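Encode chain A's predicted structure.
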Amino acid sequence: MDGYRVQSQKRKNIALSLVVVGLMLWTPLSEGTVSAYQEEAIHGGGSITGVMKFAGIVPTPKTYKVTMGSHPEFCQTIADKKGFIHIPKVRVSSKLHLADVVVFLQEVDRGKPLPKEAPILAVDRCQFVPRVIGTLADQNLRMAMRDPILHQIRGWEMLDNGRLPLFHISNLGEGEEATLQLKARRSSIIKWTCDQHSFMEGWLLLTANPYVTVSDDDGVFRLTDIPAGTHTVGAWHPVLGYQEAKITLISGRQETLELTFGSPSNP
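Encoded structure for chain A:
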């Protein structure tokens, strides 16, 4: 495929140039948009902290019987006593606070330094960890293999009317890493899957600036070192969709934000 290349390195590091696409419908993410971001000193920057909430009926988890695929006996370690693996569509706390929401700022073209460390996506016990990642486009992502069994990992560009293949990693051994260079083009929603294990899936959202985070198991998030002014905060969940809110930051101040996502139409 166009832009795909493999470089042999020590421990079989693999450099993959992905064909990835713009930032969903709300803000087109182009290569020019990302490269336009400029680092500058933030004096008296503000912060936004808050919690993502869920209201309604929690969707029933997807259930899989571990009887097929590569080395089912290994994946049985995350199954119940009857051999079923239950993958939640939505993860909520006992207080119905919502995990796995990518929270980011729109339309910020200058501010805090770009991240120096690449985020890590691990394949661990037949799961992608973390399940959801938000990261700046045009930076690297490290995929770390922690399982001793074979996984045929694929990345997909998710479009409104389907999906397009981005890459295929077929030979990553235990303890090895693949380095994925993320290049944005038309859509920035990426889904990870495994050919051998249908219950394995993960998500990544690319953004145009480094002001991005993901709500934790308690639904809590925090964005820091934000320039003063009025900002649009976007919040995206791979099942529940997208919301946004306007917040005006005063220099040196912290603002709070709470957003509530409702049940999907087919829980």
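Helices lie at 31-35, 72-75.
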